[in-house]
Amino acid sequence: MVVAEEADLRRLGGFSGTDVPEPELLRACVHCGMCLSSCPTYRMTGQEMSSPRGRLWLMNAVAEGRLNLLDPVFDEQMYQCLNCRACEAVCPSGVHYGPLVEASRAQLEQHRPRPLWQRAVRKVALGWLFDDLSRLRGVVGAIRLYQRTGLQTLARRTGVLRVMGLAEVEAMTPHISRRFLIPGTERWRPQRPAAAVQLFNGCVMGTVFADTNRAAARVLAHNGNAVDVPVGQGCCGALHVHSGMMEEARRLARRNIEAFEATGDDPIIVTAAGCGAALKEYSYLLKDDPEYAERAKKFSERIHDVTEYLAKRPLQEPPRRLERTVTYQEPCHLAHAQRITEQPRKLLKSIPGLQLKEMRESSLCCGSAGIYNLIRREMANDLGDRKAQNILATDAQEVITANPGCAMQLRACLDRKGNRMPVRHIVEVLDEAYGGEQAARRGRWVADRAGSEVG
Amino acid sequence: MDRASIIERLERIVGPGGVFHRPADLLVYEYDGSVDGAVETARPTAVVLPTTAEQVAEVVRLAAAEGLPVVPRGAGTGLSGGAVAQSGGIIIALTRMNRILEIDREDRVALVEPGVINLELTEAVQPDGYFFAPDPSSQRACTIGGNVAENSGGPHCLKYGVTTNHILGLEVVLPDGRIVWVGGRTAGQPGYDLTGALVGSEGMLGIVTKALVRLTPLPEAVTVMLADFPDIDSASHAVSRIIGAGIIPAALEMMDNLTIQAVEPAYHAGYPMDAGAVLLIEVDGIAEDVAATAAEVRELCIEVGAREVRVASEKAERELLWKGRKMALAAMGRLAPNYYLHDTVVPRTKLPATLRRVGEIGNEFGLRIANVFHAGDGNLHPLMLFDRHKKGDVERILLASKELIKYCVEVGGSLSGEHGIGTEKRGYMTLVFTAEDLAAMAGLKNSFDPRGLFNPEKVFPKGYVCGEVRALRLQAMAQKHGIYAF
Questions:
Q1: Which residues of A touch B25 (CB under 8 A)?
Q2: CA A128, A134, A135, A137: dihedral to nearest 10 degrees?
Q3: Less CB within 10 Å around the terminal CB: N or C of chain A?
Q4: Which range is least confidently modeled, A305-314, B124-133, B472-481?
Q5: If contacts are CB pairs under 8 Å, which of residues 39-58 in chain B contact chain A?
Q6: Which residue has the higher pLDDT, B485 or B281?
Q7: Chain A closest CA to B28's CA: distance in Å?
């Protein structure tokens, strides 16, 4: 490890270029430290630089020219952060931490040369793959083939994955929906539509978890909403924003705005908390784009998480009783970034027979954080283990969440403890209570990766 | 020994993951919660995060051998600069010693490590019907060790007492590296009350590595009232009337209009935006008593001019009312980039006059001053809002502060109710104490830490070397002539 000397701190200070962390936002922090206990990385390490206040101080130091932007500590801390936004939700001064850490990462990406292989991986994985979802469908299709042909069983038994160092990534791969949801190809119509909504399909949701999106659509339709999945939409760009790839994110954002403008003012329903938070922040992402700023604002105002939308209206009483105990894991980008905490609980409690048993630290990040668990396995695993312990302590039979990343991470960390408890999206449980596609079928989320149906 | 060898030795004691020494790592240990006030930052030589008392002791011995200052630190939420390494040296951060070791329900005590978070101790014992009474506003982040060091208070200290009333015993690492126990599980410990001496010693006498704390039974019933007054004056009179009537509320807090302007948009606690001041009054105890007392309090408030008194007995509503109060300080970021928070105490009867004076000082110096404080204790928290980057703001704040503190002391008050002296208020100590008074205090410091290595540059006025009474006499003389040393 290169130790930066005192003199180095002053050599290259300040942010420059595009996406500079806004001084106004930085100045809002009064360094009271109230955020510390809510921060997962501070909880795990007890060290100030791994706290939101510490990271804001580092950003300030760079802005003031007291710290080199390229100092390894700055890089480490900007990327050790899970961007779970728990600090924002508890901040008395209303510091917008998310945009600040995202801008700091964008600064690093602009000014720090990455090794060639890293650039290539980012370009292919985040750039090429998510730019055109037909490419993503191709890749996910191939993984599905791997799961279904028995190759997966073979690979796992022979231990070849461990040799290749892929065992953990592979363990996180969820059971993939049989049929992808392709925008424009399916729609749901209640007998007497009272409202019309547009479904944001997403990338992972529309492929891996396509059945969850269908479950959401059925629940919406059951409650009087005509549901369409407009063509032209793509990936929301959340992963890009979190990785400091702002230009790529903006390109995706503009495309989504255009796709949904064709559908008037209908509410846009999102089933992934991470996407919802990003879509609601298009207004911020595009604030300096004269052509799109206003349109982005309008677009963001139309965004609703599916739980947010459903909980606002009187719901049809579900015909089926679900006699079981569940616990709820709050996706960070639902609870903290969107401040949606009551609605999912309200929906769960509305299901006859269902018992909601709260776990400890339900709003502490599970370690998924987008692609964080692929890049920083140690911290992600520690957080995942802590989460699994809290889940198991409730004696719940199912764990419910509302975001694909969390679902995959929860599955992996429960598996590590040898527990096969189903992990499901809240709309799947609702869908089940409403009778679902085929009444008694359960466990379509990542409940069962091996392919056999539960229930 | 050179710096590199010291760091190597430290790493041998706590492991490489427990020592920070790179300049950028040290940057985030140059401040604590006081940094937006008037406390200067200072960088330590190294930061150590031990996990056992033995490690703490070894680090202390190493520092002693090298003549390095030692500064203990909890969550760094303190408001008087207590955790800032003013003379460099080693910061011992106790955040990794965060286990609750024992909860004894029968004896109503808990044994905890210093890094346990205040609120989490309460959450851990709540299912058994107990709570840890000291509840500073920072309780969701601050540590028990920090509470002990600062003798922290909080809204509920009006009825339940401050930290010192809830600490039964301590395991302490002394400045020479010995690990000792003071106090104990039972009442009536023989000999000197060293626990009492250590609580509130601001990390200058020893480092707490275990604390035996008292658990308080949760009251049967709780009612919170929000009384809406047209002005600060009538609210202050209500405080005097309530206390004068022999009522001891669990908490009695005041917030003025400026505070409400910061808090209400953030938390929607339901504070009336047009109120001159509100009182947040909590009464607790046996259900019948609570109902009767609440009615009496309500009556008294209306008598002195309250426009409305809202009563909340539901938990969610009570918590919302409290949330606004607890987050008030930190919500000031919405009004100005910096605030300087005072902690003076005045006799309750002097509240109306003191608050008027606070208003005048604000006008004289062209400052916005928000008031949010423990009215029942007479413990003021005037928040002077400013912008560090604006020329002259800091100077005006310091001058106004001096005026304010002088006034509070003149009317029979004190410098600090619960935030500690630290570096922030050390310059004012001569306002309250004579040279002889301070020398007596220094005698205690000397017997624990003759070399002055534990948290130097705190509490005692600047330029003052332990035991050097002469310096204090000079200051006392200067004071007589109206010159204040900072």
A1: 49, 73
A2: 130
A3: N
A4: B472-481
A5: 49
A6: B281
A7: 5
